[in-house]
Structures are given as C-alpha cells and as structure tokens.
Amino acid sequence: MKIVVLPGDGIGPETMAATTQVLQAASQRFGLGLALEHDVAGHDSLRQHGATVTPALLERVKAADGLMLGPMATYDFKDEAKGEINPSKFFRKALDLYANIRPARTWDGVPHKVGQFDLVVVRENTEGFYADRNIASGSSEMLITPDVVVSLRRITRDCCARIARSAFELAMTRGRHVSVVHKANVLKIGDGMFIEECQRVAREFPEVRVDEFIVDAMMAHVVRAPQRFDVIVTTNMFGDILSDLTAELSGSLGLGGSLNAGREHAMGQAAHGSAPDIAGQNVANPFSLILSAGQLLRWQGQRRQLPAFLDAAKAIELTAAAAVSAGEATRDVGGRLGTAETGRAFAQRLLNA
Ligand code: NAD
Q1: Are residues 146 and 208 in the same domain?
Q2: Residue whose CA is at the smallest distance from ligand 1 atom 11
Q3: How far is the CA of 186 from the centre of ligand 1 (A)?
Q4: Which positions ≥6 away from 225 have C-beta within 8 Å?
C-alpha cells in the first residue's frame, strides 16, 4: 500500500521524520506492506519546481493509497500566479477531502487544563469562508475599492448533508451524541441550511442524541466543561478555530491529530501549522502528525476492511498514551525528549508492545 509523504515547512521535516519511523514500525509489526514515497511540497517544491505543489504530484497522490502532508507555511504563499499555492487547499479541493476529523482528548501524564475529556471535531473542509477553495476558479475575496473588501462564504446543501452524515456515523462508533455548532442567529440562511441538513440526517440516527450551540457560546461551553461533548459538527472556519482550542485544552496543539477524508482519498495532516518559532530546534511535538498517520491507517482499514490496519491504528493510539505517560514526549506536554528521540522511542515502543 503506497503512502505519499510530503514533509512540509518549518517543523514539518522534523515531525515527519518521526512519523515515518512510526509508520515503518507499524508496517513491520502488523505486516501492512506500506511503501512510503517521499516527495516535496511547500517551500522545497517552490525552489525545485517553481510551485509549492505540481500537477505531477497530484497525479502521484491520486495513484497512491494515502497522503501524509506535513505542516505548510501557508501564510507565506500569497500569489498563485507565482506558484505560491496553499498545499492544504490544493489537496483538499482536488481530492474532495470534505471531512476534517480532529480528535482531542486528555492524556494521563499531561496536566489537565479543564478536566478529562474525549471529543472529536468534525469540520466541513471544502467550502465556507475559505476564499481559495469555495469557488471553481479565482478567489472569493475581492478588493472592491482600495478600502473595501468583500469575502464570500459558500454553503451548499450537499456539503452540509455529507459532513453531517460523517459526524453521525462517527458518533455511532463513540458516545452517540452530536453537537451542531453554528452562527444561525446572524448567518441565518447559510447556517440555517446547515442546521436543517444536520437535523434531516439526525432523523436517520434516532439512537444519537443531538444538541445545538451558537459558536461563540460554544467556546465558553468547551472551556467550561469539554467532557459534555462527544462529536461536534460544524462548518469550515468554526471547525478550524474550535479544533485548535480543543487540541490545546487537551494539553498542546502538538497533540491534535487531523484526518482529511473524502470518498476516494484521505490525507493525514497535523492540526497545527509550520511553527517557525520552534523550527529546527528538535523541540516540536510529533504526536499530532503521528496520531494523524494512525487515523489514516484506520480510514484505510475501515474502507477496505483490513483488520491489520485497524489493529495498527489502535496500537498507535495506545502507544501514544503510554509514551506520554512515561514522559517519552516533548517538553510542551511535560516530556523529556527532543522530536527525533520521541519518534525513535515511539517506534521502538510500538514494535515491542
Ligand atoms: P502554528 O500552529 O504553526 O503555531 C502556533 C503555536 O503553537 C506556536 O507557538 C507554535 O510553536 C506552537 N506549536 C505548533 N505546533 C507545535 C508542535 N507540533 N509542537 C509544539 N508546539 C507547536 O501557527 P502559526 O504560527 O500561526 O502559523 C505558522 C504557519 O503555519 C503560517 O504560515 C500558517 O499559515 C501555517 N499554518 C499551516 C497549517 C497547515 O499546514 N495545516 C495550519 C495552520 C497554520
């Protein structure tokens, strides 16, 4: 099974090196037969190919069984005409990776900021307020006069329905509770439609308890009592913001796994960015990317009914918990190791478990 590996910018190469060690260990222990195909995206690709991502890379990814995308310096990429394309958006749009699944849970050994919890943010990934992906060509953010900007948000019934379905299906495998997060008090039509579709899908899942929260109040609820949530479904930008909050509440942004999944393709990607403030210092937490790799293996296991992939995904989660608890982690979560040492210890622990 082929997985394309793109290390990315900033802390990407360090955290991806740790992650590939873990994938190789998982492949060895569970007989997954993984073949990792290394390539470049982001600044490396811009230097080598004149663009942060290329059509040839997309074809390579389409032909593979999964993609691991490191964090990208997206803020640096301002002009698509100069090849500065946001790689996250490129793959999410080109591969129609509509469901961004971002789990966040507390870990033994990491001080709890707000008590124990275990939840998943299910974020719509292909439209909303994202100007570079919600129209077929160009940008939906426009400079009308030098002093006036209009940014358009796209919400479609189909995208609402499919993300709602992802959330309810996931809830059936967990605590059977979905919280719908919106801003329908202001975005009455768009978020009104989002709620409508969530309610329509909810009728197909009578076992699942459903509640609704306005996004600003949700921030308070999540900080006050995250343990009352199981699966949270929301539109693109709200999910982006909320999932950074839940990852940080779990102990560190560096613990936030993230899978971008569509019907045919999936991409594991850290929830955080390229963290230029700590790049090259061997201090970045690789767990976010490692946990995302575990999510990618689970997705393949579920889709193709491959028990070995499901076992490997479970083992990665259990190993992460054991490693954090033993202090075999980076200092942001109270550990005592550097990024490279954390990756080595993780791979070793996974092999020996
Ligand atoms: P960031 O997520 O890179 O960093 C925010 C804070 O969290 C920083 O203090 C950083 O040191 C810390 N942090 C992040 N990841 C960490 C890890 N693994 N271990 C320990 N600490 C970690 O956000 P930013 O600084 O606002 O953005 C930097 C760049 O990343 C920008 O170009 C931005 O556009 C881009 N970005 C990319 C993605 C992506 O590729 N998916 C996501 C968010 C931001």
Answers
A1: yes
A2: 275
A3: 30
A4: 114, 115
Neighbours of 75 (CB within 10 A): 10
For residue 193, the enclosing domain spans 113-249
pTM for the whole structure: 0.95
* Count of domains observed in the chain: 2
Closest CA to 225 of 114, 326, 303: 114
Kindly state the tokens that stand for 79. 């002009």
Instruction: Kindly state the average pLDDT of the residues 261-282.
Output: 96
pLDDT at res. 260? 98
CB of residue 84 inside a 6 A radius of ligand 1:
no
- Does ligand 1 come within 6 angstroms of the Cβ of 88? yes
Q: How confident is the model at residue 343 (pLDDT cuts 50, 70, 90)?
A: very high
Task: Give the pLDDT confidence score for residue 132 in this predicted structure.
Answer: 84
Q: Identify the H or E element spanning 94.
A: helix 87-94
Residues 226 and 285 in one domain: no
Of 249, 281, 316, the one marking the end of a domain is: 249
Q: What percent of the chain has pLDDT over 90?
A: 94
How far apart are alpha carbons 118 and 339 in whole angstroms? 25
Q: Are residues 138 and 177 in the same domain?
A: yes
CB 250 within 8 A of CB 106: yes
Query: Which CATH number characterizes residue 19's domain?
Result: 3.40.718.10
CA 73 to ligand 1 centroid distance, Å = 8
Residue that terminates a domain, selected from 249, 277, 292: 249
**Best of 250, 274, 278 for a ligand 1 pocket test (most atoms within 8 Å of beta carbon):** 274
User: Tokens 């707000």 correspond to what residue?
Assistant: 114
147 domain-assigned: yes
Enter the DSSP assignment of 257. Answer: -
- Sign for the pseudo-dihedral over CA of 305, 161, 176, 68: positive
What separation in Å is there between the alpha carbon of 277 and the centre of ligand 1?
9
The tens digit of pLDDT for each residue in 98-114 reads 999 999 999 998 887 89
